[in-house]
């Protein structure tokens, strides 16, 4: 059973309150919560792109397989896209750790082993190694955080049916806690069930919590509102999210979509797109639009416009 402090830390992490956790003062090193609180703080730093700060924090942590896995994830995430050597080295470290936790002589408890699977599975998914990610996480797992990652993977490959099966399976053994509700909301966004009423209610409920400051949840509700054709309301959420976390890629992408659908005037929408494509050129949204533009240009190049017919003169 987690202490109330660690429970709160976990909830903040699951809801994307990464800045709050990054600024968190760690408990006493002799506390039972110290190691796991440190890991959530390190993961929050990684999520914010502050990988060097995460590595520095982890370097002073008690050695365990989960600390090693978090360090590998930080190195993978922090490496430049072109730095394939560093990225592959970090993935290999995570593969080795995934094998190591199956042995009897492991530096860590069952929670540490679960951390390794989640962190390794996350890295493999980001690397496009979907089968390896699912195998590492274990589609029959009874670790709810692993299920959350599995659901995200299934949604990302357009298999909401499999995501829903994971959710239904989890309800048989998992407590009805916040993470389970979050999983249900992710599936609701992917399927559009009941007009997105479940994710809309869930995100609104979380944002009413005075102890939570999460641009991630604001962005999630903004996306939900876009899907519900509530473009001005979405614009409001996304502007507030960007005020809290300037130039966040996901918030900017959603803001561009809302703007393009009428939330702002056309010149401002074009400026938003220019800013997004400049600051986040490797974002899937930007790359997808660029790819479609190339396909269009190739098609145009193959098309010959026939000459205009001259009007017959009397």
What does this structure look like?
The chain has 17 helices and no strands. It has a domain at 214-292: Serine Threonine Protein Phosphatase 5, Tetratricopeptide repeat (Alpha Horseshoe). The N and C termini lie far apart (96 Å). It has helices spanning 4-14, 18-22, 34-47, 51-59, 65-78, 84-100, 110-126, 130-137, 144-156, 160-170, 178-191, 197-207, 215-227, 231-244, 249-263, 266-279, 284-301. The longest helix is centred in the C-terminal third of the chain and has 18 residues, at 284-301. It has 314 residues and is mainly α.
Q: What key attributes describe this structure?
A:
about 325 residues; mainly alpha; Serine Threonine Protein Phosphatase 5, Tetratricopeptide repeat; about 70% helix; about 0% strand; cytoplasm; TPR-like_helical_dom_sf; protein transport; Coatomer_esu; ER-Golgi transport
Quick recap of the structure?
The protein has 314 residues and is mostly helical. Helix content is 69%, strand content 0%.
Tell how many strands the DSSP assignment holds: 0
Number of helices, counting only DSSP H or I runs of 4 residues or more: 17
CATH C-level class of the domain at 214-292:
Mainly Alpha
Query: Could you say what the CATH architecture of the domain at 214-292 is?
Result: Alpha Horseshoe
Mean pLDDT: 92
Strand content: under 5%
Structural classification: mainly alpha
Q: Provide the succession of SSEs.
A: HHHHHHHHHHHHHHHHH
Rounded to an integer in angstroms, the radius of gyration calculated over CA atoms is 23 Å
Q: Tell me, briefly, the overall form.
A: globular
- Report the CATH topology name of the domain at 214-292: Serine Threonine Protein Phosphatase 5, Tetratricopeptide repeat
């Amino acid at each position: 059973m987690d202490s109330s402090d660690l429970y709160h830390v976990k909830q903040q992490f699951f809801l994307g309150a990464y800045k709050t956790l990054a600024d968190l003062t760690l408990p006493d090193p002799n506390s039972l919560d110290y190691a796991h609180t440190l890991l959530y703080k390190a993961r929050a730093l990684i999520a914010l792109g502050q990988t060097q700060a995460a590595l520095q924090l982890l370097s002073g942590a008690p050695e365990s397989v989960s600390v090693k896995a978090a360090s590998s994830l930080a190195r993978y995430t922090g490496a430049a896209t072109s730095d394939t050597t560093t990225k592959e080295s970090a993935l290999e470290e995570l593969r080795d750790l995934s094998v190591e936790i199956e042995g009897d002589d492991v530096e860590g408890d069952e929670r540490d082993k679960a951390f390794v699977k989640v962190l390794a599975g996350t890295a493999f998914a980001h690397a496009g190694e979907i089968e390896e990610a699912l195998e590492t996480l274990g589609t029959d797992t009874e670790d709810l955080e692993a299920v959350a990652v599995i659901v995200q993977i299934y949604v990302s490959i357009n298999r909401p049916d499999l995501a829903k099966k994971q959710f239904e399976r989890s309800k048989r053994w998992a407590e009805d806690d916040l993470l389970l509700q979050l999983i249900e909301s992710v599936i609701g966004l992917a399927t559009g069930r009941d007009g997105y009423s479940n994710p809309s209610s869930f995100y609104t409920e979380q944002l009413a919590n005075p102890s939570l400051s999460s641009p991630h949840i604001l962005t999630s509700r903004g996306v939900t509102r876009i899907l519900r054709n509530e473009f001005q309301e979405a614009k409001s959420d996304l502007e507030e999210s960007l005020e809290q976390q300037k130039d966040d890629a996901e918030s900017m992408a959603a803001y561009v979509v809302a703007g393009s659908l009428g939330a702002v005037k056309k010149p401002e929408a074009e400026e938003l797109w220019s800013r997004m494509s400049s600051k986040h050129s490797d974002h899937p949204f930007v790359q997808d639009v660029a790819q479609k533009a190339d396909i269009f240009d190739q098609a145009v190049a193959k098309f010959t416009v026939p000459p205009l017919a001259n009007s017959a003169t009397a």
